[in-house]
Amino acid sequence: MAGGALGRDALGLRMNDPARFHREAVARLRAEVTGPAIVAASGGIDSTVAALLAQEALGDRSHAVFVDTGLLRAGEVERVRSHFQASSLRWELASAGPRFLSALAEVSDPEEKRRRIGHTFVRLFEEQASQRGASVLIQGTIAPDWIESGGALRDTIKTHHNVGGIPADAKLRIVEPLRDLYKDEVRVLARELHVPEADRQPFPGPGLAVRVTGALTPERIEICRQANAVVESEVEEAVRQGTLARPWQYFAVLLSTPTVGVLGDNRVHGQAVSVRIVESIDAMSATAQVVPPELLRRIAERITRELSGRVTRVLYDITDKPPATIEWE
Ligand code: XMP
Fold first, then answer.
1. Residue 287 region, left (φ>0) first, then alpha (ψ -120 to 50), else beta?
2. Cβ-contact 57, 29 below 8 angstroms
3. For 44, 102, 104, 193, which has the most beta carbons within 10 A of its beta carbon?
4. Which residue minimizes the CA distance to atom 3 of ligand 1?
5. What rounded mean pLDDT belongs to the chain?
6. What pLDDT does residue 263 have?
7. pTM over 0.85
C-alpha cells in the first residue's frame, strides 16, 4: 500500500528475511549501546519487539520500563503484564497517572497534548536512567511515527509522542532499532520472536488523551475508557462469531460537543461518543470498515445504558484516512 505523500515503496523497505533482520538488529544494538539502557515499553507490538531485541543484545543492562500514564484502557496493566510474561521480558512498572494528568491540565490543543506527553515520558525515563547509570533510551519508533511527525513530509501531521514530543534538551541518547520498519513488517518480526498475539490492535502512546477531544478531566477520561471497553468487547465478540473481519483498530472517542438527550421524562445535556473501526495494512492509509448494523446498534445501546445520563449520543465515523487520520487528535 502506498503511504500517501511518501509511498513506502519509495523507501525501499521490506521484511523479506526476519531471521536476518533479527540477527543484524541484535548486533547493531550491541555495537551502539555499551552501557545500561532504559527501554520504553508500552506493551504494544513495536516496543515489545524493541525490548526483546534489547534484552537479547544487552542482557541485564537492558531495563524495560512500562509507564502507567493514567491514560490507559480498562485492564491494560494486567494485559501488558500477561503479554510481557508470555514473551519472557523482564520489566518494571512506573506509575505516573497524577503526573501526566497535571502536565495535561486545561490543555485542549491536540499538538500541545502530544508535546506535553512526550516531555513527561522523557523526564520520567531520565529519572529511571539516572537511577541505573544509563544514558541511552531505546524506543520502538517505526517509520510512520517519524514520517507523520514531519520527518519526511512537508508538514507535521501529528507529533508522535516518541518523536516530535521529545524535548530539545533531552539528556538521553535515543536508539531506535525499528525506525525503518512499517507495522506489518514489525508483526512479521514479532512472530519470529514468538511475541503472543502479534496481530493485536495498536494503541497510541498518548493513550486516551488523544481520544478525549478537548480538555481532559478524570471523569471524561473514565467515560472514554468505559465506552472504549464496550467497543472492544463487542467487536472482539463479533470477530469470534465470524460476523466481522478482524479490524486494524476499533475504539471510542469522546467528543467535546455536549448533546441533548432524554432520560425517562427528563432532558439530559450529555456527551457524544464516536465509534471508529478501521481496516489498514500499515496505518499510512485506512478505510472505515463496513460493519453489520446490529453490531453498531448493540454498541450504541450498551454505551448509552452503561453510561446512562452521561453519554446521550453515539456516532459511527465513516471517514477514510486520508482525508481523516485514524485517531481524532
Ligand atoms: P493516525 O491517527 O496518525 O495514526 O492516522 C496512525 C497510527 O499510529 C497510532 N498513533 C500513535 N502511536 N504514538 C504512538 O505510539 C503516537 O503519538 C501516535 N499517534 C497515533 C494510531 O493509533 C494509528 O495506529
1. beta
2. yes
3. 104
4. 325
5. 94
6. 94
7. yes
Distance of CA 283 to the CA centre of its chain: 12
Residue 185 CA: distances (Å) to CA of 126, 178, 250: 30, 9, 21
HSE-up of 18 (CA within 13 Å, CB side)?
A: 13
CA distance 319 to 57: 42
Q: Whose CA is nearest to atom 12 of ligand 1?
A: 204
Q: Which atom of ligand 1 is nearest to the CA of 280?
A: 24
User: Are 83 and 64 within 8 A, CB to CB?
Assistant: no
* Model pLDDT for residues 77-104, shown as the tens digit of each residue: 999 999 999 999 999 999 999 999 999 9
C-alpha dihedral (182, 188, 191, 196), degrees to nearest 10: 40
Instruction: State the cell numbers at 77.
Output: 496493566
- Which atom of ligand 1 is found nearest the CA of 248? 24
Q: Report residue 7's pLDDT band, with 50, 70 and 90 as the boundaries.
A: low
Compute the distance between CA of residue 319 and CA of residue 242 in angstroms, rounded to an integer.
24
Q: Are 245 and 265 in contact (CB under 8 A)?
A: no
Verify cis geometry, omega within 30 degrees of 0, for the bond prior to 204.
Answer: no
Residue 238 has pLDDT above 90, yes or no: yes
Strand partners, 222: none
3-state secondary structure of 46: helix
Residue 16 pLDDT level (bands cut at 50, 70, 90): confident
Average pLDDT over residues 149-176: 88
Provide the grid cell at 320. 477514510
Beta bridge partners of 65: 40, 92
CA 69 to centroid of ligand 1, rounded, Å: 16
Residues 235 and 233: their CA atoms lie apart, in Å, by 6
- Whose alpha carbon is nearest atom 9 of ligand 1? 204
Ligand 1 center from residue 160 Cα (angstroms): 7
pLDDT tier, 281 (very low <50, low <70, confident <90, very high otherwise): very high
Pocket of ligand 1 (CB under 6 A): 114, 148, 158, 160-162, 202, 204-206, 249, 283, 321, 325-327
